[in-house]
């Protein structure tokens, strides 16, 4: 069936429908990863967004029940150049198109995703619509597309009840994890280091967390504009003031910065992919990291009395990590739990463990 992608700047791309045939309006972002499409689709940070894969061949190893990063795919729409009709891999349990259909994710293939990427890169992330309708009125579509906003997404993706994950080796520590849209591997990275992980819904109060006498708190990644989370930012401020060791990733990193007086801004097209070079300024080393974010902490808004920049993006110098002066808080913008090849940045979990055991980061 024919499908059409319309971008907010009026560009129109015709292709074939994949996944659901329902109309879908969302914010279109591009991801430069060559593989990892199942992890990308199930990353809750994509709620409200349509994912344009710049790499042209997607779906060639199918899908399986082990690679999900959460309970379901959260990306609203999926845009690819060529979707493999049949997945081929010893771990393959199904085809990507069936998976998209099963979960009601609207998609399109047969469009030039590199051309779309160049539009989003030069003009910035913009909204778009995928429709299978033949006779749409472009003026009406553009009005709907322009009116769309990513809102209330943390509330949609967070767990509704507390969930406890046992340690995978002998237990050393107990960690409270705030779920703003957590990726499963973040939990596993703590479990495999001897932590019992208690995952809390996003709107749990600091008081409730502190009453549990955990060794440390982890703030997860998550979707949307960080500054929309006013009530959550207040609770994070209270956790910060309590002096408990806190490690935060992506949205968690942005929320901690907002809670301590810094500001965030929307980037033109963000960082989404598995090849983003980040320099750890303390170690003097560059790591290739996996990323998915559209907002960033403004470097000039970070007070030197509160935190120092610990990691920077090698491509354009943006803030990728903050080491807080109180000695208890460390936060990073990229995903240390993801392995875009090697597992090099998992050392940050080891630092968190060290801090919870009473050592320095
Ligand atoms: N992966 C994340 O946590 C993303 C954080 C935030 N939603 C952003 O886009 O910047």
Automatic annotation (TrEMBL):
E.C. numbers: 6.3.5.5
Domain of life, per lineage: Bacteria
One GO BP annotation of this record: 'de novo' pyrimidine nucleobase biosynthetic process
Domain (Carbamoyl-phosphate synthase small subunit N-terminal) ranges: 1-131
Sample GO molecular function, one term: carbamoyl-phosphate synthase (glutamine-hydrolyzing) activity
SUPFAM superfamilies reported in the protein's UniProt record: Carbamoyl phosphate synthetase, small subunit N-terminal domain, Class I glutamine amidotransferase-like
Residue positions binding L-glutamine: 45, 222, 224, 251, 254, 292, 294-295
Class in the EC hierarchy, top level: ligase
Stretch list, region CPSase: 1-173
Catalytic activity as recorded in UniProt: hydrogencarbonate + L-glutamine + 2 ATP + H2O = carbamoyl phosphate + L-glutamate + 2 ADP + phosphate + 2 H(+); L-glutamine + H2O = L-glutamate + NH4(+)
Keywords, ordered alphabetically: Amino-acid biosynthesis, Arginine biosynthesis, ATP-binding, Glutamine amidotransferase, Ligase, Nucleotide-binding, Pyrimidine biosynthesis
Keyword Transmembrane helix belongs to the record: no
Active-site residues, record numbering mapped to chain: 250, 335, 337
Pathway: Pyrimidine metabolism; UMP biosynthesis via de novo pathway; (S)-dihydroorotate from bicarbonate: step 1/3; Amino-acid biosynthesis; L-arginine biosynthesis; carbamoyl phosphate from bicarbonate: step 1/1
Function comment: Small subunit of the glutamine-dependent carbamoyl phosphate synthetase (CPSase). CPSase catalyzes the formation of carbamoyl phosphate from the ammonia moiety of glutamine, carbonate, and phosphate donated by ATP, constituting the first step of 2 biosynthetic pathways, one leading to arginine and/or urea and the other to pyrimidine nucleotides. The small subunit (glutamine amidotransferase) binds and cleaves glutamine to supply the large subunit with the substrate ammonia.
NCBIfam families tied to this protein: CPSaseIIsmall, PRK12838.1
HAMAP family for this protein: CPSase_S_chain
Quaternary data: Composed of two chains; the small (or glutamine) chain promotes the hydrolysis of glutamine to ammonia, which is used by the large (or ammonia) chain to synthesize carbamoyl phosphate. Tetramer of heterodimers (alpha,beta)4.
Family statement: Belongs to the CarA family.
Annotated protein name in UniProt: Carbamoyl phosphate synthase small chain
Species, as recorded: Intestinimonas butyriciproducens
């Amino acid at each position: 069936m024919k499908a059409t992608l319309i971008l907010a700047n009026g560009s129109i791309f015709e292709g074939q429908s994949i996944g659901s045939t329902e109309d879908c309006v969302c914010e279109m972002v591009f991801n430069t990863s060559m593989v990892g499409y199942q992890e990308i689709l199930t990353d809750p940070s994509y709620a409200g967004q349509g994912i344009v894969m710049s790499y042209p061949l997607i779906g060639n190893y199918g899908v399986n029940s082990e690679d999900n990063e959460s309970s379901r795919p959260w990306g609203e729409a999926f845009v690819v150049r060529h979707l493999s009709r049949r997945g081929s891999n010893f771990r393959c349990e199904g085809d990507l198109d069936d998976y998209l259909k099963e979960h009601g994710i609207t998609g399109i293939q047969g469009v030039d995703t590199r051309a779309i990427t160049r539009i989003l890169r030069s003009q910035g992330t913009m909204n778009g619509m995928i429709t299978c309708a033949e006779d749409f009125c472009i003026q009406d579509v553009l009005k709907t597309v322009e009116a769309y906003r990513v809102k209330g997404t943390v509330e949609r993706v967070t767990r509704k009840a507390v969930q406890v994950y046992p340690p995978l080796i002998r237990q050393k520590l107990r960690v409270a994890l705030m779920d703003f849209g957590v990726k499963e591997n973040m939990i596993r990275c703590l479990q495999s280091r001897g932590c019992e992980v208690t995952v809390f819904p996003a709107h749990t109060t600091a008081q409730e967390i502190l009453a549990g006498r955990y060794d440390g708190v982890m703030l997860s990644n998550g979707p949307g504009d960080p500054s929309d989370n006013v009530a959550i930012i207040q609770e994070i401020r209270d956790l910060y003031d309590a002096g408990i060791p806190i490690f935060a990733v992506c949205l968690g990193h942005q929320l901690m910065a907002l809670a301590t007086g810094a500001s965030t801004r929307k980037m033109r097209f963000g960082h989404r992919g598995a090849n983003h070079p980040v320099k750890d300024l303390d170690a003097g080393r560059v790591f290739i990291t996996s990323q998915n974010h559209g907002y960033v902490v403004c470097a000039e808004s970070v007070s030197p009395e509160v935190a120092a920049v610990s990691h920077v993006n090698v491509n354009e110098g943006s803030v990728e990590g903050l080491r807080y002066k109180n000695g208890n808080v460390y936060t990073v913008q990229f995903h240390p739990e993801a392995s875009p090849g090697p597992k090099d940045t998992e050392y940050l979990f080891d630092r968190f463990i060290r801090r919870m055991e009473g050592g320095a980061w």
